[in-house]
Amino acid sequence: MSLTKIPQVMLKSSSNQCSMPVIALGTAADTNESSAETTKVAVIEAIKLGYTHFDTASFYGSEEALGEAIAEALQLGLIKSREELFITSKLWLTDNFPHLVLPALHKSLQRLKLEYLDLYLIHWPISVKPGDWETPYSEELITTFDLKGVWKAMEECQKLGLAKSIGVSNFTCKKLEDLLSFATIPPSVNQVVEMNPAWHQKKLREFCEAKGIIITAFSPLGAKGASWGTNEVMDSEILKEIAQAHGRTIAQVSLRWLYEQGVTIAAKSYNKERMKQEMTMKRLIKSSRFVLTTDQWCSLITFGMGKLRFHV
């Protein structure tokens, strides 16, 4: 395992003030890729490269494969203990009810073969009637989302030690305001589906920073190739010019830009070379030689004035 540690951020509302690595490997699979074995092999390779933070969800169908990879990494001696890793999972829409939160977490832990999560998130601020429905969900399946009741159950998960920290995903400023008005344990993290140099989420970033909530960008490179993604980041001429000026790749420039915004990153790539590129951010983050110039910042501000492309 790599000896270079990934920078971490403190989660203020977590139990015992736990810290989270700023770079995570996402394990969401598009409809046409990523078998369980592919995921397992990729996670093992990622651990060898130095990844310690892995992002999954009950909806992704990757929890079991991730759990198997963790067990194998321990057996191979790639890690000495589970405590070396930071594992994030999420509560799905069909479990987004106060009485189903704890059972859903227990199921995730069972699939992962873990005793606790480092971070547990509400995947979306939406509730769908319990059942094994096909997606996309029809309107008649969508029902009232009891945010107050669900969050109280999330807080109980943290109090029980089943999750060291709790948070949300795909929450707007308004949803966060509602949540903060009654939460006794504020969310540590808001994971956002779309945030990258093409879509800056400035208002949301500023709100979360003021409230001490860490933002994680789930599609830092625009999710090129995914059914719901965009090519706008990886095909950008502006980013290409900046990358060439620094002797870096477009991906590295994009990840550096996000880091300079105080944003953490969950990037999904099972390609070994791309994983290596993302992991070079361990060194680049600490390097004063890779800093975007004022002119480059201005170019990215203009580039980021586009419209929201997929979700939040």
Account of the 3D structure:
Keywords: NADP. Substrate binds at residue 123. This protein has 312 residues and is α/β, with parallel strands linked by helices. It has one domain: TIM Barrel (Alpha-Beta Barrel), CATH 3.20.20. Helices cover 37% and strands 14% of the residues. Strands 3-4-5-6-9-10-11-12 form an 8-stranded parallel barrel, surrounded by 5 helices. A two-stranded antiparallel sheet has the order 1-2.
Present the secondary structure layout.
Elements: E1 8-10, E2 19-21, E3 23-26, H1 36-49, E4 53-55, H2 63-76, E5 86-91, H3 101-112, E6 119-122, E7 127-128, E8 142-143, H4 147-159, E9 166-169, H5 173-180, E10 189-192, H6 202-211, E11 214-217, H7 237-246, H8 250-260, E12 264-267, H9 272-279, H10 281-286, H11 294-303
Parallel strand pairs: 3-4, 3-12, 4-5, 5-6, 6-9, 9-10, 10-11, 11-12
Antiparallel strand pairs: 1-2, 7-8
Helix pairs in contact: 1-2, 1-9, 2-3, 7-8
Task: Provide the descriptors you would attach to this structure in a database record.
single chain, 312 residues, alpha/beta, TIM Barrel, eight-stranded parallel barrel, two-stranded antiparallel sheet, 37% helix, globular
What's this entry about, in short?
This protein is of the alpha/beta class.
Instruction: Give the CATH superfamily.
Output: NADP-dependent oxidoreductase domain
Which CATH class is shown? Alpha Beta
Summarize model confidence as the mean pLDDT.
86
State the low-pLDDT regions, or none. none
Domain unit count? 1
CATH architecture classification: Alpha-Beta Barrel
For the largest sheet, list the strands in their spatial order: 3-4-5-6-9-10-11-12
Structural class computed from helices and strand pairing? alpha/beta
- What is the count of β-strands? 12
The biggest beta sheet reads: 8 strands, parallel, barrel
The total count of helices amounts to 11
Q: Return Rg in Å.
A: 19 Å
What's the N-to-C terminus distance? 36 Å
Could you tell me the CATH topology label: TIM Barrel
H and E string = EEEHEHEHEEEHEHEHEHHEHHH
* Global outline: globular
Helix content: 25-40%
**Strand residues, percent:** 5-15%
